[in-house]
Design a protein that fits this description.
Blueprint (H helix, E strand, L loop, with lengths): L15 E9 L6 E9 L10 E5 L6 H5 L8 H7 L3 E6 L25 H19 L4 E6 L1 H12 L4 E7 L20 E5 L3 H7 L6 H4 L4 H10 L5 H5 L2 E5 L1 H10 L15 E6 L7 H9 L7 E6 L12 H13 L6
Parallel strand pairs: 3-4, 3-5, 5-6, 6-9, 9-10
Antiparallel strand pairs: 1-2, 2-4, 7-8
Helix pairs in contact: 3-4
């Protein structure tokens, strides 16, 4: 049973402070958007109470982590639990700068914003938070492609990571990965946001589809997601520009049995969460990743029943929220 009992009905939005930061990347002209939420009374900033997040391969941190379902988002929940939470958009996503390659026709350039770039942008965001709060380390959360970004960062920057929580991180696969539809890859792809619902529901058993996403939640999510699309034409058509660098890296690394990084290099405690009905990161793939976390101070697996790859936005979201908050809140004394 999750240990945090807070529900959206008990949540008071007036308790949460929301701040926005645009920080310089390592590339001239590219700024990264970082959102921050914390309780109004949060005055003492500690490493173990600070979280930095990064998103997946298609949708931004705002789209995945900060849509207020029933009046409360994932970031709101964590802030209300006493965490100082930061979420970055990698370049090309959300409210961060769009590279020039994303402002022209997609077939004019090869896949853009690869995982290397994601790791660099995430590192920039973490360093910003460390300076901003005068800290030596932070907690990290990420999902899907963001799990690769955060995992690779943690494996190379162990001194800056208190704990690492991952939801459905990528790993090696000997079968096709659904997000890669095959064929040549342009610089970016156009994602029909409203069409995502059928694909989303289709990953769950038929008997559970009606209750998987509560009424009104998808429309709210689509509204918030499309509001971040900078192309007015695409936005009006209900489409979102998503970079293809992460898709190319599926082919270069994960389908080629060529790990982008070694999970065994991660030294911090690790929480791995997985949804029962996740077809993007199937159970055997997640288990294979978990077994390779041999260097972690300790590791924990949590399987979320009746949940898909998008567990954070579904009817069982509070289980995921609570497990993550409990993991970050528990005491840990490094050797």
């Amino acid at each position: 049973m999750p240990r945090n009992k807070l529900t959206s009905r008990e949540f008071d939005t007036n308790e949460i402070l929301f701040e926005e930061h645009y920080i310089e990347s390592d590339t001239a002209g590219i700024k990264l958007y970082v959102r921050n939420k914390r309780r109004k009374g949060h005055k003492v900033f500690l490493a173990e109470k600070t979280i930095v997040m990064v998103h997946g391969a298609t949708f931004s941190s705002g789209s995945l982590y900060d849509v207020p379902f029933n009046g409360m988002s994932f970031l709101d929940f964590l802030a209300y639990q006493g965490f100082d939470v930061f979420a970055v958009d990698v370049r090309g996503y959300g409210r961060s700068s769009r590279p020039a390659e994303m402002l022209v026709e997609p077939d004019l350039n090869p896949p853009h914003v690869a995982t290397d770039t994601g790791v660099r942008d995430f590192a920039t965001a973490v360093d910003f938070v460390l300076r901003f709060r005068d800290l030596k380390a932070v907690n990290i959360f990420a999902m899907s492609w963001g799990g690769t970004v955060a995992g690779a960062y943690a494996a190379s920057n162990g001194d800056k990571v208190v704990k690492l929580a991952l939801l459905a991180p990528q790993w090696l696969s000997d079968v096709p990965i659904p997000i890669d539809q095959g064929g040549p890859l342009d610089s970016y792809r156009l994602v029909p946001v409203h069409a995502a619902l059928n694909r989303w529901l289709g990953t769950a058993p038929e008997y559970a589809r009606e209750r998987l996403v509560p009424e009104g939640w998808f429309d709210l999510w689509a509204q918030y997601t499309l509001a971040e699309e900078t192309s007015k034409v695409d936005r009006q058509l209900g489409k979102l520009r998503a970079t293809n660098g992460p898709i190319q890296d599926i082919r270069t690394y994960w389908r080629a049995q060529n790990p982008y990084y070694q999970p065994g290099g991660i030294r911090s405690p690790v929480l791995l969460l997985h949804g029962e009905w996740d077809i993007d990161v199937p159970l055997d793939l997640a288990q294979s990743y978990f077994r390779r976390l041999t260097g972690a101070a300790y590791r924990r697996w949590v399987e979320i029943g009746e949940a898909t790859h998008l567990a954070l936005m579904e009817s069982n979201r509070m289980q995921v929220y609570s497990e993550i908050a409990s993991f970050f809140a528990e005491s840990f004394e490094p050797e």
